Amino acid sequence: MATKRLKIIPLSLFVMSAHISGLRAFLGTSFQIAKAEFKLKNEGSYLGIFWYLLSPLLTFIILFLVFSDRLGGGIPNYAGYLLIGVIIFNFFIRITKENAKVILVNALLIKSVNFPRESLIIANLFNAVVSHLIEIVLFSFILAFFFGTNITGFLFYPLILIPLVIFAIGISFFLSAMTIYVNDLDNIWAFVTTLIWLGTPIFYEVGGQTKLLAVNLFNPLFYFITLAREVILYQRLPELNFMVGAVIFSAVSFFVGYFIFSRLNRKIAELI
Questions:
Q1: In sequence order, what DSSP letters do the residues of 188-230 get, joined into one string?
Q2: Which of 7, 34, 58, 151 has most Cβ atoms within 10 angstroms of its Cβ?
């Protein structure tokens, strides 16, 4: 009996070691792709990564100037309220928009080299997370310096960022897989995200709007943005239904998205 246990333990360790080595290789491939894409996008650019910060910053400034006295009049710390919504939405759009066309953009590479296609999606995720963290650091100082906001709540932001990333990856898997059947899916997704932008309380609050609240109960970004505002801006424990909702949306998005991607993965090279 003892001999059998000794045989099982080394075998389990070998299997675990193989999985860890495979994960390292996968993350290494994703990192190298992300590094190459980052250099390619910023080649010849004087400001480099700061171009990524310019869009949300200008969006924030314009919306704040237009709506601070109207829609934001009754919202405590409207500058932080607006900025958090813009940053999170911009992060989600950046990941999903890039991954909606990642298969078609890298069609030649996919046909020429045998490698895990998931690494293309994770590579875009790496770049988006890096620029997002820079946004968080920069804009937290903006809130602290110009608006006197207490930024200690940002220390808890990783607790919200992790499920948000998982949710975005799931959507990315789905979009990247479906694009082999719908070539202009990135344009369709751009239109859909415009509708989501208008329907999500980013520069306004739901308040007593019953119909709008009912719609946003099925809007995952509403949960993530609300959690971020409660924790970071107002520094209070969010309601349990928002925490549970964020976890459920993240889990469902990831498993459904990855399931569809894995089922279509073998056909990608043939159909593109």
A1: HHHHHHHHHHHHS-SSS--TT-HHHHHHHTT-HHHHHHHHHII
A2: 34
